[in-house]
Predict the structure.
Amino acid sequence: MSSKAVKQAVMNGDRAFENVNRQDRSRKLEKRLIRQQRKLSRSYVQNKHRKEGEFCAKNRRKQLLVVQKLHARLANIRKEYIRFVASVLVKTKPAYIAIKDLNVSGMMKNRHLARAVASQNLSQFREFLIAKCLESGIEVRLVDRWFPFSKICSGCGEKNVSLSLADRIFICGNCDLEIDRDFNASLNLKYTNEYTVVTS
Ligand SMILES: [Zn+2]
């Protein structure tokens, strides 16, 4: 994405960035990748049953290249998007940026999360964002991953222990606040005093 796109996003004051994997172009590419991958594995099975000497893998090599190119394009789209989001965040010149100290390697061990986490390039994003902020003199606050961001009401501080992962809206039993779950969590992240400042 161009610097013009970054400027536009800063001007619009975009507050939420969509998941790059839910964008149309990623979805289309992923679908195509699955199809071409299937074609590739079929050609493998066919070649396996050939006798030595009559092994003809030319088409298989061609198909392998198709799959590799699709993988590379998807990876590039994700990388480019990370750089775009980080640039927009830095260009808005915040006093500080608070991020949750996600346990990415721990999440990768969870087989239900691993694919989603890996395809978001979370650690790459974090690394890039921190580097960008330090470069521009923006404070980066790292908040402990055990801090109960989503369960605390950002309005009054009351804890809502019954909130489950499926609840997308946070409703406070104390002050009747109704707020998007992720937005509530990000407000808690923003205003907490329990953080460490990243220095390098
Ligand atoms: Zn409340």
